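How a chain folds remains the central question behind the approach discussed here. For one protein, we set the task of working out the structure tokens from the amino acid sequence alone. The sequence in question and its structure tokens are set out directly beneath this paragraph.

_____
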Amino acid sequence: MKMRNHILRMVSVFFLVLVLGGCGIMTVFSVDYSFNSDTTTFTFTNPDNILSWITPSTGPSLMLAYIVTDEPKHPSILATKFNSEFRRNVVDGRMIPSGSKILSTLKDNKEYTLYKLSNSSGNEFNAPYFFSTATNPLNPDIQFSLSLTSNNTLRFSIVSGSYTNPNQELTRFDGNSFIAVPSEIADFPDYVVSDTAVGSLFIHVYAAINVSEGDFTNRFWTELHPVASIPLN
């Protein structure tokens, strides 16, 4: 039986790092998790009660991002770029910038830019709480779903887990609906579409979870995972 589960295991225990140069002791937050791409589920373990280090109502927080292309497969270069630029490692994670744009990278002379999903009001879901935050850091597991609406927006719903914004209609970074016809696209920075494209376009959605506030000194990221490639037409 073909299995599509994508399970990633991370460092399992917390540790202390001595920072040289007089900076003192750095307390590093790290936690095990797995991501199931079949069910779009993040599941966390809690060795040594590490999740209790998180300040309540500040995390773990779900970030959703996207790009639209004329290829059915998600561009893996975006996850690779995110993981090297922002996740980096357990000790040295960086926060993504405010605003709608997350990062850009080149492939085959084309610029691929990852944007945060927005809502119809054009609201930006910025750090550190992003799109959705666990109401209790001791219960951070989340299963969610994404589907295309008749208005060419995305419907986000939480299947299980207690997080803020459990049911939202999501749009492009500027608050507009997704355009489904290649010929109607005019220099959209969140689209990568060839001049000869005539078929379906695909919304590629990615997710990562961040923890950045609490009794620790680092920023923790899961890896950025592709969660859906949704055809627009």
Observations:
- The chain has a mean pLDDT of 85.
- The longest strand covers residues 202-211.
- DSSP finds one helix and 16 strands in the chain.
